[in-house]
Amino acid sequence: MNCDLGEVMENLGAAAALGSALWALLLTMLGTATSQPLGGESVCTARPLARYSITFTGKWSQTAFPKQYPLFRPPAQWSSLLGAAHSSDYSMWRKNEYVSNGLRDFAERGEAWALMKEVEAAGEKLQSVHAVFSAPAVPSGTGQTSAELEVHPRHSLVSHGQQKGRVCLEAAVADPPGPTQVSFVVRIVPSPDWFVGIDSLNLCEGGRWKEQVALDLYPYDAGTDSGFTFSSPNFATIPQDTVTEITSSSPSHPANSFYYPRLKSLPPIAKVTLERLRQSPRAFAPPSLDLLNRGNEIVDSLSAPETPLDCEVSLWSSWGLCGGPCGKLGAKSRTRYVRVQPANNGTPCPELEEEAECSPDNCV
Length: 364
Description:
This protein is of the alpha+beta class. 17% of the residues lie in helices and 26% in strands.
């Protein structure tokens, strides 16, 4: 649909005033936004687009996380990495907010189809998802996987209205430019609905792209399954809860697989590194299929932190019968068993059997 020159000039005048007000409001809002974890500016003037490698490193070792560490059926491992480069009006996930149905399926069962359809729909409807990327799964708790992505310094969000005046005005007052942000998720396997990831990471600082960003990752609960342990059966959370970070003391329940009350904070369970690539897309040679599919053990795994795990024992059993000769004190006993063996210099197990004097019930 075409606009005549008079309409365009009138709309441009209105657009300039409205655009300035909207731009000032947007800058104020973005100045306090929590979706910029590194404190970057909301306006990116870097040119041209940048190409990054993203490397996910699993640090989920039995040394760092000894409690209920999954050794088989299935052993500790990571799902494939799913991510998107997007504008600030899209969110793949966010702490203290509800996850989408697609992310619920991915966090609970590793099913990615619904999540990818949601990302695709956001790209078509909102014009806010610029690209998607993925990396192969890691078949062990400690290993690496990687992918590549492109990020753009600016984006223009122009709606497609049906009315003539609205089309002209919206074309003139496109949303202010802003940097592409990066989000991704990786499922913790096995787990009820636990995952790691980053939300809306900005790789641009004013007029330049960041050369490297490295972030430690910690477990999150998607809020859709109420299991406490890695191998818990499916038990839906009703009503659904929001995304919460799992810590050494929360959930505050001894059955929680990440419950380490002696620690102020959990060690990082994974790490992500983004490095800007200097090669042109044509010159870059991707890793071979063999390198992507094999489990790459971390070279510095011996330097992983040793998390102390205290011994946990059951409650005492009931006292047994009191036995002994007539006219003398007898003895009775009770027992308990080890529920969690100590590890990494944790508190050793106490005595598992206890005796006490008593008057014989049936003397001999």
